[in-house]
Amino acid sequence: MHRRTLLNALAAGLALPVGRHAWAVAGAQPTRRKLIVVMLRGAVDGLNVVAPVGDANYAALRPTIALGTPGSAGGALDLDGYFGLHPALAPLLPLWEEKKLAFVHASGSPDATRSHFDAQDYMESATPGVKSTPDGWMNRLVRALPGTSTPTRALGIGPVLPRILAGAAPAVNLPNGAAAVKPGALESPALAAAFDRLYEDHPRFGPVYAAARAARREVLDAAASPLAAQMMAADNGAPLPNGFPDDAARLATLLRNDPNMQLAFIALGGWDTHAGQGAATGQLANRLAPLAQGLDVLARRLGPMFEDTVVVVMSEFGRTARENGNKGTDHGHGNVMWLLGGGVHGGKVHGDWQGLADTALHEGRDLPVTTDFRTVLAQVCTHHLRLSDQQLTTLFPHLPRHSAPPLLRT
């Protein structure tokens, strides 16, 4: 069997960079401050996530999918008298009231593409309009953080290592679902010993193999700790509905049990609502409900660690302000970013909101981008992760000079 095939077998459940981006074992002292990024692939409709129900044009632009005013049937949940939260996100209201949840409206990428592929690439590389960037911004972040990078410092959850974590720094990837933390073939002592003998003295693949084995053991140890077993017993065998709440619970357990784990990324699909989007109920609501449940589970399972965590929820672009003939929305521009955590300046909808009048819309059809997503991420990296201005220039090349409003408490 070819060495690369064997290494891929080793990585079943752990995506590892090989070849010229291979990394070696290194110790680390990661900080206690955590960052979790949730990417909503497909372009979620931010205008129905945080709905401007106080704008008369909102209901006029969306005759069948607009949320009602707070207190009405199918109404939004009041946030500040002007904006309302989608009712499927009700589990997050306590965080809003505790000022641990905030939104940045009319935010997003300045690049005007309506291509999902390109827009996601730009948000994950943090170089809008530049396709040649070799790495993701979270991978660059690993290299900028103090301490030595270990294999489990940055974690992705999904079928493959995401673009945002691709690069020279160590990163691991776990598949979605409970199988991610179950022992696999290489936990067999006989098979593991055979691989150990094959690679222990190899100058090129030996360090990669050793690091992968160490990362896999670390993940399994964290998942199998007494705390993890206690959490499973408390659930009494009843899984939370849909996939994200379960993944969120496992992620919280891993973060609590593995002090080396500091950064995490997970992507969720199904937000491309061109038809039959619905208002308080329907397709979008069915996606938002497990998202809210998962974020609530994540906050509760992290416990005190949530105070030192920031969760960023973002999507590649927004959707049209006006609903289409199929009672859905098409690819747009500006959107809404979410921030959750103990240090967030919460209980507020931030951003330069200019309303939904025809003259305020981008190209007469979309919410404009008045806050560049990189300025939001830059605040998280400076105020939460304590990076310097000089480090930001490497992390976010060509970062706009204008900044977002104060989003985190310092």
UniProtKB/TrEMBL annotation:
**Secretion signal: which residues?**
1-24
Q: Which domain of life is it from?
A: Bacteria
Its keywords, alphabetically, are: Signal
- Which InterPro entries does the entry mention? DUF1501 (IPR010869)
Q: Write down the PANTHER family for this protein, in alphabetical order.
A: BLL7424 PROTEIN, DUF1501 DOMAIN-CONTAINING PROTEIN
**The name this protein goes by in its record:** DUF1501 domain-containing protein
